[in-house]
Design a protein that fits this description.
Layout: H1 2-20, E1 43-49, E2 53-57, E3 65-67, H2 80-83, E4 86-88, E5 99-100, E6 109-113, E7 119-123, E8 126-127, E9 129-131, E10 145-147, E11 150-155, E12 161-162
Parallel strand pairs: 1-5
Antiparallel strand pairs: 1-2, 3-11, 4-9, 6-7, 7-8, 10-11, 11-12
């Protein structure tokens, strides 16, 4: 009986440790660093955001950013200190390609290897990220920030990064 009780205690402890290892965001009930299996089908849209004009956003309306350290088709934001602030926009669990809607161009969408073997959606070769400081869709508070060793910018529907500073992070309609 002593061996069975010890075994049950070890299983219970293992389950407790495993459950403590995942953190969730109370607003979305998703882990703080989403994995492809936890991401909904990926569609890229466009949305007008203040003085920045029309930019690429994800299926949740969140502004997507390019990281200047990445360069085209190179994911460098892979450490937890970077990915908890700048979350890569993953393809869904099957690694299928994202789709385009609005003024987003399907021909510019691809994906590159990202952290832990996941695939990060790219637009005109730029890996895409959301910014944890954007409290809702339609804002771009991460625009022109110097963070994680480089600058972060929104991307136009033509695939060019927009280097202008955001004059306003207020929401405006259009495209989404």
């Amino acid at each position: 009986m002593k061996g069975a009780a010890a075994g049950a205690l070890m299983i219970g402890a293992s389950l407790l440790v495993a459950s403590c290892g995942s953190s969730t965001n109370s607003q979305t009930s998703k882990p703080s660093t989403a994995t492809p299996a936890q991401v909904a089908a990926s569609t890229l849209y466009t949305r007008s955001i203040g003085s920045l004009g029309t930019v690429i956003v994800n299926g949740h309306g969140r502004t997507l950013y390019a990281f200047t350290r990445d360069g085209a088709s190179k994911v460098t934001c892979t450490t937890p200190s970077c990915t908890t602030v700048w979350r890569p926009d993953y393809t869904k669990g099957s690694w299928s390609m994202a789709t385009a809607s609005g003024r987003a161009q399907a021909a510019l969408i691809s994906s590159d290897p990202g952290p832990n073997g996941y695939r990060v959606i790219t637009y005109d070769g730029w890996p895409l990220y959301t910014y944890v400081g954007d409290s809702e869709g339609g804002v771009a508070t991460g625009q022109a920030l110097n963070s994680s060793g480089g600058l972060w910018y929104v991307i136009s529907p033509s695939g060019k990064i927009i280097k202008a500073a955001a004059a306003s992070s207020s929401r405006s309609g259009g495209g989404y």
